[in-house]
Amino acid sequence: MNEDSLRFRELSTLASRLGIGFDNLALLDRALTHASIACERKDLHENYESLEFLGDAALGLAAAHPSAAVRIVQYRDCLAALDAPSRFYHRSFALDPLGTAACL
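The chain above was modelled as a monomer; its predicted structure follows.
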Protein backbone atom coordinates (compact mmCIF):
# COMPACT_ATOMS: atom_id res chain seq x y z
CA MET A 1 0.00 0.00 0.00
CA ASN A 2 1.50 3.35 -0.98
CA GLU A 3 1.69 6.38 1.26
CA ASP A 4 -1.10 8.29 -0.55
CA SER A 5 -3.66 5.51 -0.25
CA LEU A 6 -2.81 5.07 3.45
CA ARG A 7 -3.19 8.83 3.96
CA PHE A 8 -6.60 8.89 2.26
CA ARG A 9 -7.75 5.86 4.25
CA GLU A 10 -6.79 7.71 7.45
CA LEU A 11 -8.57 10.84 6.24
CA SER A 12 -11.68 8.80 5.46
CA THR A 13 -11.57 7.30 8.97
CA LEU A 14 -11.19 10.79 10.47
CA ALA A 15 -14.16 12.10 8.47
CA SER A 16 -16.28 9.14 9.59
CA ARG A 17 -15.40 9.68 13.25
CA LEU A 18 -16.24 13.38 12.94
CA GLY A 19 -19.52 12.48 11.27
CA ILE A 20 -18.76 14.70 8.28
CA GLY A 21 -18.98 13.56 4.68
CA PHE A 22 -16.42 14.91 2.23
CA ASP A 23 -16.87 14.71 -1.52
CA ASN A 24 -13.19 15.47 -2.03
CA LEU A 25 -10.75 14.06 0.53
CA ALA A 26 -7.94 15.92 -1.25
CA LEU A 27 -9.39 19.19 0.09
CA LEU A 28 -9.43 17.77 3.62
CA ASP A 29 -5.83 16.68 3.15
CA ARG A 30 -4.94 20.17 1.92
CA ALA A 31 -6.76 21.79 4.85
CA LEU A 32 -4.70 19.70 7.29
CA THR A 33 -1.34 20.26 5.58
CA HIS A 34 0.84 22.91 7.22
CA ALA A 35 3.00 25.11 5.00
CA SER A 36 6.21 23.90 6.66
CA ILE A 37 5.51 20.32 5.56
CA ALA A 38 4.77 21.47 2.03
CA CYS A 39 8.20 23.17 1.97
CA GLU A 40 10.00 20.08 3.26
CA ARG A 41 8.35 17.69 0.81
CA LYS A 42 8.82 18.58 -2.83
CA ASP A 43 5.83 16.44 -3.89
CA LEU A 44 3.42 18.61 -1.88
CA HIS A 45 2.56 21.87 -3.59
CA GLU A 46 -0.61 22.82 -1.74
CA ASN A 47 -1.26 23.63 1.90
CA TYR A 48 -4.01 25.15 4.00
CA GLU A 49 -3.02 28.81 3.54
CA SER A 50 -5.16 29.59 0.49
CA LEU A 51 -8.11 27.77 2.10
CA GLU A 52 -7.50 29.76 5.29
CA PHE A 53 -7.59 33.00 3.31
CA LEU A 54 -10.85 31.96 1.64
CA GLY A 55 -12.36 30.95 4.98
CA ASP A 56 -11.36 34.23 6.62
CA ALA A 57 -12.93 36.14 3.74
CA ALA A 58 -16.17 34.16 4.07
CA LEU A 59 -16.27 34.76 7.83
CA GLY A 60 -15.64 38.44 7.24
CA LEU A 61 -18.62 38.60 4.91
CA ALA A 62 -20.82 36.78 7.41
CA ALA A 63 -19.71 39.06 10.25
CA ALA A 64 -20.33 42.18 8.16
CA HIS A 65 -24.07 41.48 8.07
CA PRO A 66 -25.49 40.78 11.54
CA SER A 67 -28.62 38.68 11.78
CA ALA A 68 -32.03 40.18 12.46
CA ALA A 69 -31.88 38.91 16.06
CA VAL A 70 -28.55 40.67 16.63
CA ARG A 71 -29.88 43.90 15.11
CA ILE A 72 -32.98 43.78 17.36
CA VAL A 73 -30.81 43.35 20.46
CA GLN A 74 -28.54 46.20 19.32
CA TYR A 75 -31.58 48.44 18.75
CA ARG A 76 -33.00 47.57 22.17
CA ASP A 77 -29.63 48.27 23.81
CA CYS A 78 -29.45 51.62 22.03
CA LEU A 79 -32.92 52.54 23.34
CA ALA A 80 -31.92 51.43 26.84
CA ALA A 81 -28.79 53.60 26.69
CA LEU A 82 -30.92 56.61 25.75
CA ASP A 83 -33.63 55.82 28.30
CA ALA A 84 -34.75 58.68 30.51
CA PRO A 85 -37.95 59.39 32.46
CA SER A 86 -39.10 61.73 29.69
CA ARG A 87 -38.92 59.00 27.00
CA PHE A 88 -42.23 57.42 25.96
CA TYR A 89 -40.82 53.91 26.48
CA HIS A 90 -39.33 54.56 29.94
CA ARG A 91 -42.16 52.85 31.84
CA SER A 92 -41.90 49.76 29.62
CA PHE A 93 -38.20 49.40 30.41
CA ALA A 94 -38.81 50.03 34.09
CA LEU A 95 -41.52 47.33 34.29
CA ASP A 96 -39.96 44.77 31.96
CA PRO A 97 -36.34 45.58 31.08
CA LEU A 98 -35.80 42.44 28.98
CA GLY A 99 -39.14 42.56 27.15
CA THR A 100 -40.05 39.07 28.32
CA ALA A 101 -43.73 39.91 28.88
CA ALA A 102 -44.15 40.53 25.15
CA CYS A 103 -42.78 37.05 24.44
CA LEU A 104 -45.13 35.21 26.82
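DSSP finds seven helices and no strands in the chain.
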